[in-house]
Backbone:
């Protein structure tokens, strides 16, 4: 099935030469990289102004989708990384809601960060859209549940389009905006997992249909800090489980919130469970505790690769604090997982990298150039997010990927 890549005329650019493109389409699936308010020379526009940068990022995202034969109305998922508190988060959601209108109703994941990759950059937005290969709009089911976390009505808590199912952020945030289980991470973890099970059931699926989960939790970047809630989350999944990425945050925009999760799942349109293949390459790295997750899975044509890092089989960090060496090893691990399904980096449509760093071009480009050089041009859409700490001390980069095969 032909794959198309997007770089609209006059679009923003990085200040270094890369193989990545701003968007990729494979069949009905469209993926954009993180869209930001840069100019064609890689300079930040409207530094520090989250409102103007939000409008610009959404404009760029719309241009990518249009270049790929779709538009903002085809969005099924948005991921918004931003700098600011809960009031900024609320303003961003309201602003995006106005730009989208009341009919699109994608799910949305919002992740508050202390800073983004360039000084003065306040927001980065990526999207997933779906449009029929013949250009037709695809039917979708959008669900907004009154007992789920507070969310503007222009968004959905869970959305289903064909076999694909996407959830918004599940957390201990109540429908009124207060937080349940204040100060208790295990309690909040249980609340969010029960809510996840509930929204999936509304979409005709269950937790065993999950392909990819992304978890953010309040933590200090140590294994001890991560293990207890990780065990609790894992108890909801049977072996073999989904691919996973987990990220510690120093704090959430709402400081009472301690964890949130979002997932991608698939279920047959007639309700049957779809066949999945799983990957755990021989000799691959492992966590410090037993978990049901696998490093990758394939369902139909889509492959999800969980966050790949520079660890050994005993969860010891290889090349501690060395960004370049760890990036190369993480990319090698992505390659190994893809190979289990007969895929290569040429099949990757979207890659996301979390790296320990701050708002500086040097911190981003140190790993961006290494991972970009692994791809043949044109390469996948990409998002790079600096983070104060990762799950294990002295681990400085984690890379996840989505690939699409020509046929199932």
Residues:
């Amino acid at each position: 099935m032909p794959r198309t890549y997007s770089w609209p005329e006059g679009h923003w650019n990085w200040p270094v030469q890369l193989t990545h493109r701003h968007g990729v389409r494979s069949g009905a699936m469209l993926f954009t990289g993180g869209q930001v308010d840069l100019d064609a020379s890689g300079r930040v526009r409207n530094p520090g102004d989250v409102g103007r940068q939000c409008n610009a990022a959404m404009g760029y995202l719309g241009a990518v989708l249009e270049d790929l034969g779709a538009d903002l109305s085809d969005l099924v998922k948005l991921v918004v990384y931003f700098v600011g508190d809960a009031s900024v988060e609320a303003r961003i959601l309201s602003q995006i809601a106005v730009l989208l209108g009341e009919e699109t109703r994608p799910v949305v994941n919002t992740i508050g960060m202390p800073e983004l990759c360039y000084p003065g950059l306040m927001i980065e937005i990526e999207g997933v859209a779906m449009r029929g290969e013949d250009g037709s709009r695809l039917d979708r089911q959008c669900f907004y549940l009154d007992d789920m976390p507070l969310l503007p009505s222009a968004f959905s808590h869970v959305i289903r389009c064909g076999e694909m199912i996407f959830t918004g952020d599940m957390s201990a945030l109540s429908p009124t905006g207060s937080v349940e289980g204040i100060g208790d991470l295990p309690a909040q973890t249980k609340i969010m997992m029960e809510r996840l099970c509930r929204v999936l059931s509304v979409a005709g699926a269950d937790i065993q249909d999950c392909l990819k989960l992304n978890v953010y939790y309040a933590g200090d970047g140590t294994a001890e800090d991560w293990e207890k809630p990780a065990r609790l989350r894992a108890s909801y999944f049977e072996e073999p489980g989904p691919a996973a990425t987990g990220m510690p945050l120093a704090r959430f925009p709402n400081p009472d919130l301690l964890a949130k999760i979002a997932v991608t799942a698939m279920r047959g349109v007639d309700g049957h469970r779809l066949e999945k293949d799983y990957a755990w390459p021989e000799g691959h790295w492992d966590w410090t505790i037993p978990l049901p997750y696998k490093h990758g899975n394939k369902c139909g044509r889509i492959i999800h690769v969980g966050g790949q890092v520079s660890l050994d089989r005993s969860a010891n960090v290889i090349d501690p604090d060395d960004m370049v060496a760890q990036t190369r090893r993480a990319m090698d691990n992505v390659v190994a997982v893809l190979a289990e399904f007969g895929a290569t980096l040429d099949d990757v449509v979207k890659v996301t990298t979390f790296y320990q760093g701050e708002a500086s071009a040097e911190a981003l480009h140190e790993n961006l150039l290494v991972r970009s050089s692994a791809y043949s041009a044109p390469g996948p859409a990409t998002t790079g997010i600096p983070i104060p700490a990762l799950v294990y001390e002295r681990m400085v980069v984690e890379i996840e990927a989505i690939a699409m095969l020509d046929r199932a």
Summary: The chain has a mean pLDDT of 96. The helical segments are 50-67, 86-100, 185-202, 223-234, 323-339, 361-373.
